[in-house]
Amino acid sequence: MKRRLSGDCEDSPSSCEGPAESCKRVRQPAEDSGDVLPDWARLPQEMLLHIFQYLPLLDRAFASQVCRGWNEAFHMPELWRCFEFELNQPASSYLKATHPDLIKQIIKRHSNHLQYVSFKVDSSTESAEAACDILSQLVNCSLKTLGLISTARPSFMELPKSHFISALTVVFVNSKSLSSLKIDDTPVDDPSLKVLVANNSDTLKLLKMSSCPHVSPAGILCVADQCHGLRELALNYHLLSDELLLALSSEKHVHLEHLRIDVVSENPGQQFHTIKKSSWDAMVRHSPKFNLVMYFFLYEDEFGPFFRDEIPVTHLYFGRSVSKEVLGRVGMNCPRLVELVVCANGLRPLDEELIRIAERCQHLSAIGLGECEVSCSAFVEFVKMCGRRLSQLSIMEEVLIPDHKYSLDEIHWEVSKHLGRVWFPDMMPTW
Amino acid sequence: ETRGGNTIESTVATMVVNSVHWFRKGLRLHDNPALQEALNGADTVRCVYILDPWFAGSANVGINRWRFLLESLEDLDTSLRKLNSRLFVVRGQPADVFPRLFKEWNVTRLTFEYDSEPYGKERDAAIIKMAQEYGVETLVRNTHTLYSPDRIIEMNNHSPPLTFKRFQAIVNRLELPRKPLPTITQEQMARCRTRILDNHDERYGVPSLEELGFKTFKGDSSHVWKGGETEALERLNKHLDRKAWVANFERPRINAQSLFASPTGLSPYLRFGCLSCRVFYYNLRDLYMKLRRHSSPPLSLFGQLLWREFFYTAATNNPNFDRMEGNPICVQIPWDHNPEALAKWAEGRTGFPWIDAIMTQLRQEGWIHHLARHAVACFLTRGDLWISWESGMKVFEELLLDADWSVNAGSWMWLSCSAFFQQFFHCYCPVGFGRRTDPSGDYIRRYIPKLKDYPNRYIYEPWNAPESVQKEANCIVGVDYPKPMINHAESSRLNIERMKQVYQQLSHYRGLSLLASVPTIQEEAEPPMSDDSYASSSTAGEARQSSIIILTGFTVQLSVFFALFLSVNQNVTTLPDLTKKSFTMPKKINA
């Protein structure tokens, strides 16, 4: 790209012209009339903006070196609404990081333009610290979205808690219109949540805070009580309480769309509290279409309190081994179930349990079975009962036990027939 | 096959045919068409293996692999002796060695088995070119795989199949693999007698492990996998003796016994080519048809062989197959860089007996069962440690007897959900999976003797045993045996989120479904038959495949960018060359 003489760019077009006029202005008649050549230097700012929005950052940066007009376009606020800070150290990550000088420039020139910001950090404490440093400087920002994402180990947890909290609070206090906040795996605590609520209760719609060990049920209850626009919430089971569900179902509250709960065992033999059926019923009455997503990471003998009563779960994931008995209870008590993923089970076939799930979970459309055992006939029966509503059927080939009715080679035809599409089990290399 | 040209001069001058057969893999005398070509009408034949002892020390090859190779070479030498010939082990690198040999032995014909791997193809192209310059005719035969990888690629719209089912569908439409040739005979060899010098052993003998720089101990001869064609063929016979298995062909369900090295195991022999894959194929096929009265065997009977073919085919045109960066089929995952954790895994010090026992068996013997491989691969990558599959691949390359470039890299990508397979929800628990596979715990006791006195209840998770039990077993966790290096529940929780993040970005799926966040490779099971269906279905297939095929990290240095960013009013007369540096593609801007 040739550099133009600065003279051509002095009179940069104003941004309130309509496109038609701008086009006319851009065109310069060439010597032979009839041929009109566009003058790139005169491309109006709003067009430049539009084009720049398609370019990755680096290409835009190169474009900005062409002339002053394009350089001004590069610094237009609209282009700095979203930014993802990638903070990686060579010792702990293979990925490159956002350049520190670039970060400085953004803070200096564009911090008040930033609205949708995320931080991706690797497993080193330095990266988490760098993220906090940046956060503390976002004083002029009115963020709408903030995401703190650990791409490997949760390095925010390694920071001194106060350091993290004070950085985060800067954003809470200054933004005042936060709508989406992702702070999973961070040392956020009750007082900082209070600050969040005090400043952003009208606007907060999404809050993801799975595995935040310093938050208590009271802390999250405060959020639910004040932030009536909350539509999506993700947290750990220990924060869930009947009061929380009732608060989310109160009249003042909007319909909840997604509730994600992680049930994680800290120590073997951990006891979990129960949630009353009436609280779940209140949720369903208030938000009939809401999705309840539950991820279980428990030992087999810790499932005592779960699935004893009807529960409106829609997406269920068992990350460790889950017993036949519990899967039986799932069949009985989860009428709204849409997706079921089982990582592992014991060595006894899950035939009856699967059939029961097909019978009673009429909305089931996705199922994934890892290290389990299912006889081929029961599996075919299951698929037949579910029929075409099963849009995802993922099962390892090792799971299926051939029996007198079907061999492995035959089963995929039967299943494909009932599903209405070609289907094969998943495979692993066996060499 | 390729032929180098003879110059007219050399054809007139030397009517004599002096052949050299170059062994690389294919370390056998049976089913060796290239070797047969060397013998065909030749006056002399010399069988060479080229080895660089200096290179041995620095190569990522462990002692078991070297031993296996040396034993295979010894076996070849012994077999050749019976035919009044010898094996010539030439020290050096092919590019240096061949010119010398061409001159010294007046070579007119060079033969070798085709190597489909990208590095192999490059090396061989250079050698063929050089041979041409020396007036040496080159003949290459494809016998390391059942089928020609190029043929399969051609039949799949010029790209390698990315699902095993698709691969099987194509193989089904191919003719049967070429029948294996019999072994070299006395008569064949007699016609091309080569004079063996007195100092042959000194100059061209098979090196010892010591010569390659390994320390061995006296009495260290009891090892599990003995290299060589003789051993391979004996094992094949024993393998076929398990007639019942072949006849019923039930999917062999893993039991505790499967974890131990089997006297009929064949994978290392296939890898080094001590056993011809076609011989194996036809033996299995013939036996099946005999026992089942001529019904055609299902493809699943050849599972082991076909997986091998699958990976060779996938890799043949992809020089970046063994890495994440620049590999068009590999998902770019933000793996952690953690050498300390990697070392613990590689050395069997994770604190999880199941993982440690497997890695110990691998290091001691050079082979582990495929489910054991799944367990440790999952643990290293997407299951627990979140370390790059490339690191695991390198450890296997060093230690595993049957790990060659294509199969090893391909399997690691598969197991880490980086390519071919994306059902990342399926995670192997380092405690539960082991316990279900071998409830008796005998496998653990054999490879981690320190834990032998632990009761079955705790042997897979010794850290949960009460102090009294640990004391009685004479093995305190944290002192005699390491504490578990991570909390599995915690790690798997984090990792499933990471994988979900990665995959949701790929598919642009933003919903809740764990399964739906994985774009399934919708290759049709049957490749298109006619031109019409080709047009319509292939674009759909390609479109979906390309949505899975990830942005490779093409990279440009950010400091370059930054310099531009700063220099608002400065003259920038030239833009830097972007092809060589690194940046990460930033996210698209949402207005």
Describe this structure in words.
The complex is a heterodimer of chains A (431) and B (591). Chain A is built from 16 helices and 16 strands. The two termini of chain A are 54 Å apart. In chain A, helix 11 links the parallel strand 8 and strand 9 (258-264). By secondary structure, chain A is an alpha/beta fold. The model of chain A is unreliable at 1-18 (pLDDT under 50). Chain B is mostly helical. In chain B, 46% of the residues lie in helices and 5% in strands. Chain B contains 27 helices and five strands. Chain B has helices at residues 8-13, 33-39, 53-58, 63-82, 94-104, 118-133, 149-155, 164-173, 186-190, 200-204, 229-241, 243-248, 267-272, 277-291, 303-315, 339-346, 353-365, 370-383, 389-399, 405-415, 432-437, 442-447, 456-459, 467-472, 488-507, 531-548, 558-566; strands at residues 18-23, 44-51, 87-91, 109-113, 137-141. A five-stranded parallel β-sheet of chain B has the order 3-2-1-4-5, sandwiched between helices. In chain B, helix 5 runs parallel beside helix 6 (118-133) and helix 19 (389-399) runs antiparallel to helix 20 (405-415). Chains A and B meet through helix 4, strand 3, helix 6, strand 9 and strand 10 of A and helix 15, helix 20, helix 21, helix 25 and helix 27 of B. Chain A: Residues 1-32 are annotated as: Disordered. Chain A: This is F-box and leucine-rich repeat protein 3a. Chain A: Its main location: cytoplasm. Chain A: It comes from Cyprinus carpio. Chain A: One of its GO terms (cellular component) is mitochondrion.
